[in-house]
């Protein structure tokens, strides 16, 4: 099995041009111990390998019980990286792995969703003594760490990698957009053309999903709580309405909101027979799996990764147990997207290693110059040249 | 393994509404022996089951060495259907299965690509005595059987199911479009947004692929030999040019032409390092695999279904060995598309069983009234009502 | 005013590359008298000029009361072409111009919609003696001349220019698509993004309009009577339903069906307050203007080309009096589209002049070799080179 | 002529639902003198009328020499509004009108582009004594007023209406997108499908234009100076490169950058014969008209609003003299877009009238609660209901 893990890592290594460029740059993490909690598959493995090549000692675990790929975890160990991870549905086991990473007393944490950092700031406060900085990958994680900051608990500088333009403009839109649609197609083999697809949430993720669902020919409906985003969705040509109404006619419902219980019990009861449900949000709370379990008169896996719930004389299908569908039931974001995000991560960790002493204990926006640097690396990788403002134009912008 | 085969068949049975309607209709094939050669996976299995439910005796094989799913083949046997098929790369074994089907002396043939019918008209002419009709699924097959007709060899009436509007307007566009893109995404995990995708051929398949590749954010280039189609591709906003030029900058090349050697040896040598090749045409002749094999200094499977060829200091990746990529390395057309096509097939076989005696030995277009009937069944399945012309409007169209 | 007519003709002359190529070719119409009935604006004027340059004597009138641009008509006279046309709402005056053209006893007719040819075959049968052929531009016209043929009245060979691939695949889709949307935008200044646009008819025109309306961000709904086209519209992601239901929520209704009374009286009564109506079909019968006139308690021009009808406590706006909106209230098809169509027309007239003696008195499909010739001319004009099949590939297609 | 002005105002009044709602609300501007400098056409006229209905005394001029519609200016006077404006190419006359507005000693300024406010802060500093606030409409204007602030000159609070989400997400994208394409189509009658359209700048305006040009079938190329935006454009499927290269193959060039001299002299010399140039930026400096005038061996108006420049053996066409093409040569943004922007403007002026005393002399972002209020008004006008977060969900977002 480890062989397939090695293959997967080799494959992505050929398409992560930015990490390859950084490996050849003059960045140095020698002597730094980095604890990583991240969806453990080939691309994140290659990030860990990259950090190790820059000199760091890396200890890795997953950040979601179902998103760990065991063959990759095994292969990663062969690269001399300490791995504590296993695909599981056992939340307790999942948390035991987080503890093992903290046991290593990391200098820096690379977090995805905030579980590791929150644990360090609550149950495991003794590790804070050594911890010098955190870089956080997701919207959800940044929100949670801001909550720590607001409650006065945050003890280290945090770089909100998620808030880098090269992250949120790309990962959450092109990455989630493609991979969620990919996962739904490969796991159902159902036609998207003409299907009524309801996307809950029109943030960056939601609009990526909506755009790609339309790109496959679906009829897309959108629900939102933010009136500005709702008007945008309308002007993008989508049907917009209350989820309680739209879910009655939807063939496929995809949640991408960041909040819990996007569908209410009544909504579940109102779903069409044969409706397919998928979640694209970080936590498995958007589709209320507990309610579904309670309602179900019968349930069984009807296709790999697809669970059939029978109730009220109808069947409803849930992909990937309501966990984020592109990771729990597919290969996650496309390689090149993660390559960009992980270039941002790598630069953030290097930045923290150099500047931690002068940084405050708060959540920082991603440094703009690093953000632009990654954009220029990506253009270089693509072989695209762009214009520069002339001195006269710069002057014009200043003085006109 | 058969368990997963049964699961797969159950899953598709829930989404093949038209076949389910036909099973409940008053169609009768009692006493008819039907030889099927078709990509053997869950959907075609459900067609076989449907024909059996209408009373037919069904003998099945594959129509492409790599497109047979063994678990489905096993499960099908449990339904009392005679199956001769195995996923293989051995062309000889593949043909031995075709012979086994002909051994059963079928009354009707349901063909996909024409291999079974051509064999019956060449090496196995003794089976023609009993054969009363053929329904053929694909463009390629129809072309081959028309060749038989032109050469004066064709001995039975053939219904060109491929030429039904409900077939070629849907299967070749929405079906191939989605499933080819699905296969490329799931087998590479590469980002399509911003990728330079070259689609060779702008027939119904090619434009479906181009439309969906663009729908996923790709930059799409098209090559064509038909000047009218080339102008259409330009007006659809695609870059159009000679394949020998476009292949130099393509990240992904997808062939959908129906002819052999779409890429020449020189083109292979001019590909970018890291180019991905996939074929969406019926036969594995569009990408010249023989030339690639000859050029390769090294080759190995770098990811499941992806073969890496090294030559001239670069790597080129081929998905599914150059066989039609949506079947050889994914689940084929979406379920609902095959449901439409197979409703057409079922009605064609019933039609042949009733009318064979009065039909000529030639290739017939698909009967228009059956075509429209299937369209109305599909609208019914979708719950969509449409308008009817009023008598005054009919009169207007006639007499104005 | 003629100055603006000359300007308009000069402008289009710079963008009608195909006509310019044909003018420099070795085509000869010397001695042939051609009667043209066509939407008289700059592009058709340049067709008349082209025919004159090839040696023909040209007599021109309009083919729709409102589509004649008077400044162009005047300018055309300066080129030595006999013009009988005026923008008018007076049907009688319109028909008097048709009669004037027939008075010239044309050898060939270039018709658009069939009015001139039908007149020649009914009230003015004496002109048939001299008439040697007709080329007809539109779907509607071809249908009418086929009706003549079926009734045994047709007395000359007719070339269905409309049925050329380079015509119906382009003019009816890219031409109508763009120009109808252009006309609605320029005449209303209303936002299309998020608007509910109902397109009646999903033929080539309807799908062009639907595609472009979506391209401007509209939410597009489609009504159809053909079940196959209805399923296509669904799979293209549009909402499909009965016009009597969809018209209740539409902000804009565009008819493109070819039949009369697309909206019924009840539908008009059910329209939303502020609904905008436009017709893209050849005749002004799709929106029942008579019913609207009868219902209206008040009517007045509220914006140039936009008539406001008040009834039942609401207002409904009709652009261009229900005549084809891209010509009655804008500049018609884009120049390059008409350039293609008129290259087809020119070649059809030359073809008729050479072959009329051996042709039957029926409606002919457009000659395939001329069709392909025009496609190749267009590629040349665009500077695009395409592939040719190799002899091996041709052989493969024949013999496989 | 004033009659057409009245018609135009009546037409827009029927589609400016938000202004109509505000007129019926309990907003009061009695006693406030408002100086407006704005593209003077029907929609802005209706804003002036709305402000007057709320009690204000309104003095109006244009904000761009060519964008004033004289019939509307005349009609507006009939509503008891003081108007100083005329369509002109005379910059001096244009500035004299600005002075006339300042002569009225306005309490508040509603500015578009910043000319009026800059004038008040430079040559006419005596008016600052009475001035209590400014609301500014555009990106360019906000930048200029920020420059004033940075130079320590700004003497009043400024509300950056442009920075409201309901402004920049809509006006600059859906508004500019549609109206620029509309203007190019109506002024050229050229086909967009298959045309090579180069959009310079991928800010909100540029991406709106690119999206709509693609929506009409164009092949879209993008130039940018910001590397992040350049990568976005690539991932949106556009060709991205240096303007100096792309302009050599462009059929149409549209500038939307906010800086001067987007095309250099060498670029002009490299344009294709027949290239069409249009500017969508606020000032007529993006296309270097001075260079074009110098190069031209001959120039003349070849179509209304289209100037032909001949040089170097080729012709280049400029629409609207290089001024913003949707206003100088069409009707500006669609009515509903301006309705939203002007609802924001109206609320900003009411806000300034109430809070000016406590505000600092700086540029303020648009108040978020007013922004959301306008979004909810728009949803109400559209008849769309959306979801609200439940208390449990609000809690979840806070505490998780």
TrEMBL record, chains A, B, C, D:
**Enzyme's top EC category:** hydrolase
Spell out where the chain crosses the membrane. none
Looking up SMART domains in the UniProt record yields: AdoHcyase, AdoHcyase_NAD
**Is Hydrolase found in the keyword set?**
yes
Which PROSITE patterns has this protein been placed in? ADOHCYASE_1, ADOHCYASE_2
The cellular component terms of Gene Ontology attached to this UniProt record, alphabetical and capped at eight, are:
cytosol
The protein here is known as Adenosylhomocysteinase
Q: Which organism is it from?
A: Fervidobacterium thailandense
Lineage at the top is: Bacteria, Thermotogati, Thermotogota, Thermotogae, Thermotogales
